[in-house]
Amino acid sequence: MRALLYHVLFSLLFLGCLASKDRSVRLIKLSKLKKFVDDLPDMPRIKGYTVSDGVPISTTLSIGMYQKLWKFHRDLPPTPVFAYGITKATATVPGPTIEARQGVPTRVTWTNHLPKKHILPWDPTIPTAESSSNGIPTVVHLHGGIHGPTSDGNSHAWFTVDFKSKGPLWSTKTYTYPNVQEPGNLWYHDHAMGLTRVNLLAGLIGSYTVRNPTVEDRLGLPSGDEYDRNLVVFDRSFRTDGSIYMNSTGNNPSIHPQWQPEYFGDAIIVNGKAWPSMRVRRRKYRFRIVNASNARFFRFRLSNGLRFVHVGSDSAYLGRPISTENFLLAPSEIADVVIDFAESETDVAVLRNDAPYPYPSGDPVNEVNGKVMRFVIERFSEADESRVPAKLMRYPKPAMHRAVKTRYIAMYEYESSTGEPTHLYLNGKSYDDPVTETPRAGTTEVWEIINLTDDNHPLHIHLGLLWVVEQRELVKVDEFKECMKKVNDAERCHVGEHARGRRHAVPRYERGWKNVFKMQPGFLTRVVVRFALLRPGFGYPFNVTGEPGYVYHCHILDHEDNVMMRPLKLVL
Ligand SMILES: *[C@@H]1O[C@H](CO)[C@@H](O)[C@H](O)[C@H]1NC(C)=O
Ligand SMILES: *[C@@H]1O[C@H](CO)[C@@H](O)[C@H](O)[C@H]1NC(C)=O
Ligand SMILES: *[C@@H]1O[C@H](CO)[C@@H](O)[C@H](O)[C@H]1NC(C)=O
Ligand SMILES: CC(=O)N[C@H]1CO[C@H](CO)[C@@H](O)[C@@H]1O
Ligand SMILES: [Cu+2]
C-alpha cells in the first residue's frame, strides 16, 4: 500500500480549513504542541482476585465502557473518548490495568454504557455489526488469554448498551479468564465486527498482567508498582477542538465510503498522554510495552544509547535476557524490557521511534512522530537490589517434528481499477466463509504464512501459542503470485520451489512463545503453533471445542475489519 496523502497533511503546519461534508477538518498543528509537559500517568490497577486467609481466590469484576472527556495534553482541549472503568468517573484511556494471578480465575462482566452515536466515522459497507440504532456494538477480547470460546470476545458476540441488541454469536454477560497461561503480558480491547478499528481508536484498550509470585519473585527483576510499569503506546491525530481526527472519506469512496487501509496519527500517546515525561530514579525499571496503534509500527531507541534488556515477549518469558539498542514492535505486540538508568551518562533520555509508516515501505518519521516520551533521570544513583538473572524461565521448545499438520495461510490484498486497496483476505476467504482451520486440541501444527502483499502484517492467533522458526524470501514471486491468484493453493503452485530465497534471522528477543508475529512482505514465514498449555500434562480447563470457536487475524485493525480474519475451531 502506498503511503497516503493524509500522512503528509498531518505533519504539515496546517491550521487551514479543508472542505468536509460533516465537520470542518481543522487539525491541531502537532509540531506546535510542546513535548514532554505532561507526567506519564500510571493507569489504575485492579486486582483480578481477592485474598482470603492469605490465599488469592477468584473474583468477579464489573467493568463498564463510558463516553467521557479525556485530556491528552496540557494544551489540547478535552477529547471525547470511549473509556473502560469500574465507574464513569474512574474510567481512563487506556483502561485500568487488571492484575491477575496465574491459575486463579478472573471473571469480568463487561457492560456497555455508550451513547447511540459513535464519535468516529465507521463504514456500513464492510461486514459490520449493526445494531439498528440500539447503540454501539462492543465486545471485549483479552488478547493473549487462554480461555473458553464463549469468553473469547468473538466479533459476532457483540452487545450494545444494557445488552439491548446482541450479535448472532452472543452467549453470556460474564466472561471467565482462567489465567492458565504463563505469567506475562496481555491486553484487552474491543473486537466488534467491523468496528474494531474505530472502537480502539476511541479508547477501548487496557493492560492485563498475569503474575505468579512463586516463580517470578526469585528472578529478582525490578518489581512493585513503582519499578514495574505498563506502557500502552498508540498514535492519534486531533482537530483543533480536541476531538480525535479520522479521515471520513474512504480511499475508494464509491466502494467503501469511509474505510481506509491504514490509520496513522502523528501524536504519539503513552498511557493516555501525548509525549509524556516520567521522572525515574537512577536504577533499573521494568516496562511492559504494548503497541496499541491501529497500524503504526514502532522501532524504539533511547536517545542516550541506553539499552533495552528483553526479558519477555508477548506470551511468556524468554529463556535468557537479550540486550538490544532498538527493537521493532508491530501493532499489538508486547515487549517486556528492563532499562537500567544507573548506566545513563545523561540526566535525560528521550524514547524515540524511527519506523517508516506504513511499515516497511512508507514515509520516514518526522520531528513529531519520531518522539515517544522522555525520562528525566535523578542525578544520584541509589542502592538497587533488583537484577536481571542470566536465566529466566524454561519452557518447552517448539517441536516441529511432532507437528501433526502443515497449513498454508496466504495473505491477499485486492485493488480497485485505480490501484487502491479495497479489502484484504486470508486464503482468499472472508470471515463468514466456512471454517477451514480445525486443529486438534493438544497438538502442534506448522503454519506457513505467505505474504503476497506489499505490507507487513502482524498475524495474531487466538488461543494458540506460536514460535517463529524461519523467514524465507520467495523467489520468482510474480510467477507464484500469478498462480496463487488463479488457484489459491500453495501446494499446487509449488510453494517449495519458491520458498528458497534468503533467510531472515528471527530476532533473538522474539525467539520465544508469542501470539503475534510480523509477516514480512514477499516472505514465507514458518511458525510452530501449539494448541496446548506450556506446562506439559495440563489440559485446557474449559470446553475448547465449544461454540463459537476462536479466530486468527491480521492485527492491523483496519485490515482485520475488512476482513483479514478467519474462524479457528478446535476439535478433539
Ligand atoms: C481523506 O482521504 C481521502 C481519500 O484517500 C483523500 O482524498 C483526502 O485528501 C483525505 N483527507 C485528508 C484531510 O487527509
Ligand atoms: C503497534 O501495533 C499496530 C497494530 O498491531 C501496528 O500496526 C504497529 O506497527 C505497532 N507499532 C509499534 C510501535 O509497535
Ligand atoms: C463442548 O462444546 C461442544 C460444541 O458446543 C459440544 O458439542 C460438547 O458437548 C461440549 N463438551 C462438553 C464436555 O461440554
Ligand atoms: C515489499 C515486498 O517485498 N513486496 C512483495 C510482497 O510480496 C509480493 C508477492 O509475493 C511481491 O509482489 C511484492 O513485491
Ligand atoms: Cu494486515
Provide an overview of this structure.
There is one protein chain. It is globular, with a radius of gyration of 22 Å. The protein is mainly β and 572 residues long. The model is unreliable at 1-22 (pLDDT under 50). The chain has 7 helices and 32 strands. The protein has 3 domains: 2-26 and 39-212, Cupredoxins -  blue copper proteins (Immunoglobulin-like, Sandwich); 228-381, Immunoglobulin-like; 400-568, Cupredoxins -  blue copper proteins (Immunoglobulin-like). One 2-acetamido-2-deoxy-beta-D-glucopyranose (NAG) binds next to loops.
Intertermini distance: 40 Å
| CATH top level assignment of the largest domain | Mainly Beta
Strand order of the largest sheet: 13-12-11-15-20-17-18
Please name the fourth-level CATH homologous superfamily of the largest domain: Cupredoxins -  blue copper proteins
Mean pLDDT: 91
Cα Rg: 22 Å
- Total domain modules: 3
> Which cofactor or ligand species appear?
2-acetamido-2-deoxy-beta-D-glucopyranose, copper (II) ion
* Overall CATH architecture of the largest domain: Sandwich
Poorly predicted sequence stretches spanning 5 or more consecutive residues: 1-22
Q: Strand-residue fraction? A: 35-45%
Helix content: under 10%
Biggest beta-sheet profile: 7 strands, mixed
Helix and strand composition category:
mainly beta
